[in-house]
Amino acid sequence: MGLLYHISVVRSISMSVRCAIALCAMILSCGTQALCAPITNHSVEYPYIIYVDSAYIPVLDNEEFQSVAATVIFPVNKTALPADSPVLVELNDDVLPMLNSDSIEALRIDLRGAASPEGTLPRNTYLGEARMRALLNFVQNRLDVPLKDADMRMLSEAEDYLTLAMLMREAGDKDYDRVKTLCDRYLPAGRYDAMKRELRALDDGRLWHRLLSTYYPQLRTAQLVIYCKRKTDERRVRPTHLPLRVFNTAALPGKVDFTFGPKRYPRRELLSVKTNLLLYGVYMPGGYDKWCPIPNITVEYYPLHGHFTYVGTFDCPWWQNYWGHKYFQIRNYQLEARYYLRSGDIRYNPPGQGPAFRGLYVQGYANVALYGLCFDADRGWVGEGIGAGVGIGYVQKLDKRGHWKLEFSAQFGFFTSKYDPYQYENPVNPNYRDHLYYYKWTQSPELFKKRQYHHTYVGPTCVGVTISYDLLYRKIKKRGASFRSWEWY
Prior knowledge:
Number of strands: 20
Largest sheet: 8 strands, antiparallel, barrel
Distance between the termini: 40 Å
Number of helices: 8
Oligomer: single chain
Number of domains: 2
CATH class of the largest domain: Alpha Beta
Helix content: 10-25%
CATH architecture of the largest domain: 2-Layer Sandwich
């Protein structure tokens, strides 16, 4: 077998000839089955839109696919769609509105995601698949009727030596034969590590560095080809006797990872629930001398646009030991707004690329609290107060899709409170024992007024190590929301 290809197609050949070659290859692979009509590509402006007049959709080999595919090039080590990509502008403004028209029906989308060889193989595998899914979600979100899983063919190429060799051949590169020899030797067996190791060693690394600057930026891609038909038939017949293939798998040596796209309606996180793990380890000294975990729950709301999210927190320790005269009872309600330095706007973070709002953020908050604290029979305080402050934090995902996240945060602010001290038994008449709690007031009861004491604190107000889970999602292109466990994504 040659290096990469079964059919060699010169780029200057017209679209109709290329499609005819692909059709002939499919006929040979499928026996003597006859096709109803040849495929045609009537879209001069968009070569990646292929019109078929039959229910039989051709299978393009790697070189044919590369010659017509729409290609989005990514920055190194990035999976977010680049906002300045002309392909995305063309898809958004022209192609996808055309597919939403009444005269054209999208039958299938072939997608391919790839990474350049530098970096580790697991990282490159992730980059290739993430880039492919980013482009898929971009298309699906803009189709009035998103395609089903069966209408998508997806291939993730971790280290795209195939395209590297093709680019070198087309450029007439003097080192093409050496790279081709390595590909023929290692790729059929899937020995990517050996391929990379020997390629790095050629010319004491000089060839590797030249390829890195000349060709590798063109390998960090997500590509697609869309097969369409004009809506002239009332029904669409799908052949059952054709093998399921993606491009030409015989021309792609090594391990091939075939995956399917997301469900019909992609989703975006709407609400997450979280809890501060550090507050469950609180110990109260100074005579109280007990562990007092502080149950707490936080809800964060994620908009579709901008940098801001909105958060509500409720802390509710309610511990008491009547005979020991120990109470640790607090009701704290807090609202905050967060500003993430990395924008969570859906235009730049389509669903499927992990949490939209992550990384470093700053916050402003305000809170109100009611409390009752008692250390022993003679030392108790009851009151309420308000506070406000600022904070900083960092959010990182824990799993691949980002449903679980870990947060680190710190807050600084003030809390001002009005309170009254209290004690066990009557302070006016110590001989009167009714086993009740009284305000610490030894003067005439008619002169007593509540909340005669005031205290203000300024300093650190909270430190957090928080675990977060995306509980509720909004459905894109469809009204409503769903719980994480109710709908797969």
